[in-house]
Amino acid sequence: MDCLFCKIVDGQIPSKKVYEDERILAFYDINPEANIHVLVVPKLHIDSANDINKENSKEVAYIFEKIPEIAALAGITNGYRIITNSGPDSCQSVMHLHFHILGGEKLPEHIR
Ligand code: 5GP
Ligand code: ZN
What we know:
By secondary structure, this protein is α+β, with helices and mostly antiparallel strands. It has 2 helices and 5 strands, in the order H-E-E-E-H-E-E. Strands 1-2-3-5-4 form a 5-stranded antiparallel beta sheet, covered by helices on one side. A hairpin with a 7-residue loop joins strand 2 (24-28) and strand 3. The longest helix is centred in the middle third of the chain and has 17 residues, at 57-73. Bound molecules: guanosine-5'-monophosphate (5GP) and zinc ion. Residues 3, 5-6, 45, 96 line the site of zinc ion.
């Protein structure tokens, strides 16, 4: 499959890992938009949040169970923002579901 994040999950493309287990991978964004910017992906390929369904939603729930640990491992101590872009108008650029974890500084109050 020609998917950048599947290749990162497979190790075909290197990444700076924060956390990995059999179901998910967390790694630093190559182009950080905050002092600390981590991406969390399910190892199962899901295109976007718009493609979460009864069969795959357990992977998403598991990501959210693990996010506090991942944020702490990344050195985030004072809160964070979770973002996922879904579809063209959101400017989603990688079609493999991922959650941006942004922190390590006071973030702008509003984004648009
Ligand atoms: P999106 O725009 O789809 O919400 O987010 C995709 C994110 O993936 C962007 O923040 C971008 O910087 C990041 N990204 C793109 N290619 C790579 C890569 O090869 N390695 C890493 N670590 N991040 C990447
Ligand atoms: Zn993928």
